[in-house]
Amino acid sequence: MEQAAAPKVSFVSLGCPKALVDSERIITRLRAEGYELARKHNGADLVIVNTCGFLDSAKKESLEAIGAAMAENGKVIVTGCMGAEPEQIEAAYPNVLSITGPQQYENVLEAVHRALPPRHDPHLDLLPPQGIKLTPRHYAYLKISEGCNNRCKFCIIPKLRGDLVSRPAAEVLREAEKLVAAGVKELLVVSQDTSAYGVDLKYAASPWQDREVRARFFDLARELGELGAWVRLQYVYPYPHVDEVIELMTAGKVLPYLDIPFQHASTSVLTRMKRPAAQDKTLQRIKAWRAACPDLTLRSTFIVGFPGETEQEFAELLDWLEEAEIDRLGAFKYEPVAGAVSNALPDQVSDEVKSERWNALMARQQKISARRMKRKVGTRQQVIVDEVGPSGAKGRSKADAPEIDGSVYLSSRRPLRVGEIVTAKIERADAYDLYGTVSGF
After folding, report:
1. Which residue of 60, 200, 231, 397 sits 20 to 30 Å from the alpha carbon of 438, by its own alpha carbon?
2. In whole angstroms, what is the distance from residue 96 CA to residue 47 CA?
């Protein structure tokens, strides 16, 4: 008797790494139940679109992705941040099968089951214990909490994802251990507010191996650093206790890399933004961090053109950048987001001025970055290999997060493998990337 073909699902994952983790969890469950992934919408039995709803431009991209799935397939399940406010999706595509918000894995699975019942064969459906990864095998995002307790005026993340909900430390560490056992060489720690981890749990301990580990940023980072993989800390607000983690960097336990979304440098702008964490001593703290850990790389994001931003406040930001010497920078022109408190603020900045300031900021940052990169010429850097081609390879140093930072272009006498970590002598640098020759394995 011929077996029925396995049900096929096509998947679109939009938005940030935290949304990617949500997608991986859904796909892992689907694969465990015998579903197969289809490469094209028209070859699938249904489509799942994990949306982003943070900015209007992201919502537009999400609606376009839903529209393409409806046109090519017709059976579409929508989830993710935009699904938390479904009216816009319902108005544009009233025939979608289901709309759910972020982290609602069970509801997504229920919608799939209704539209496309599973056909599970335990002899055929072999699920690797670490789950299905959407990232390359050698790195993985490790989400340690959901939601956020902050109420920044330009942001609707708490409205979409709720208040902070941290995972117990032992649960995070078990997942990380499985990932490393499966070949992951780099763990990227993510959440909406990574350094607030455990506040909601009152830092409660949970049993891990032969000891109790508190749900605290430092304690979790220390334990992750014992697993033998690179540990990269992202989305870290500069609360005072972040200073402790620098010790782990100098000891080589976690990567000397901090992704801190400063968003601005002017105290008056930060006050209007309602940003958390004191900013008045940030420059002194950065100098102290670098004194303790000279290899520290700082990545940050900044917003230009926030309502009321004056020329003086923008000049403060440029001067601050020059002194702080931020290594990696992402800049955004302020964009009103439906539901954000900042929409009602007076003195909105014109699009023309936003563009001028964005260009000025990026030009200044390019010079700072080129200066920082030039200092690495002649040094030896550990590099994790991401891509291998006929004439060389491309990887990342400890200073580079995947997809958002620069690359290291490598030449080597022997063939390199994706995922291996090599030592390279840096011979040349430009504003964002390094070029070198492999000198050790």
Report:
1. 231
2. 10
d(CA 421, CA 107): 40
Please state which of the ranges 14-18, 94-98, 170-174, 338-342 shows the lowest mean pLDDT.
Answer: 338-342
| pLDDT(163) > 90 | no
Three-state secondary structure of the chain: CCCCCCCEEEEEECCCHHHHHHHHHHHHHHHHCCCEECCCHHHCCEEEEEECCCCHHHHHHHHHHHHHHHHHCCCEEEEEHHHHCCHHHHHHCCCCCEECCCCCHHHHHHHHHHHCCCCCCCCCCCCCCCCCCCCCCCEEEEECEECCCCCCCCCCHHHHHCCCEECCHHHHHHHHHHHHHCCCCEEEEECCCHHHCCCCCCCCEEEECCEEEECCHHHHHHHHCCCCCEEEECCCCCCCCHHHHHHHHHCCCCCCEEECCCECCCHHHHHHHCCCCCCCCHHHHHHHHHHHCCCCEEEEEEEECCCCCCHHHHHHHHHHHHHHCCCEEEEEECCCCCCCHHHHCCCCCCHHHHHHHHHHHHHHHHHHHHHHHHCCCCCEEEEEEEEEECCEEEEEECCCCCCCCCCEEEECCCCCCCCCEEEEEEEEECCCCEEEEEEEC
Residues 328 and 285 sit within 8 Å (Cβ to Cβ): no
Structure tokens at 62: 């999400």
Length of the chain: 441
The CA distance from 181 to 171, in Å, is 16
pLDDT of 2: 42
Give the residue among 293, 270, 274, 273 at the shortest CA–CA distance from 282: 270
| Residue 381 contacts residue 406 (beta carbons within 8 Å) | no
Cα torsion 112, 7, 73, 25 to 10°: value is 50
pLDDT at site 323: 93
Burial class of 53 by CB neighbour count within 10 A (0 to 12, 13 to 18, 19+): buried
**pLDDT tens-place string over residues 244-274:** 999 999 999 999 999 999 999 999 999 998 8
The span from the CA of 76 to the CA of 66, in Å, is 7
Q: What is the pTM of this model?
A: 0.82
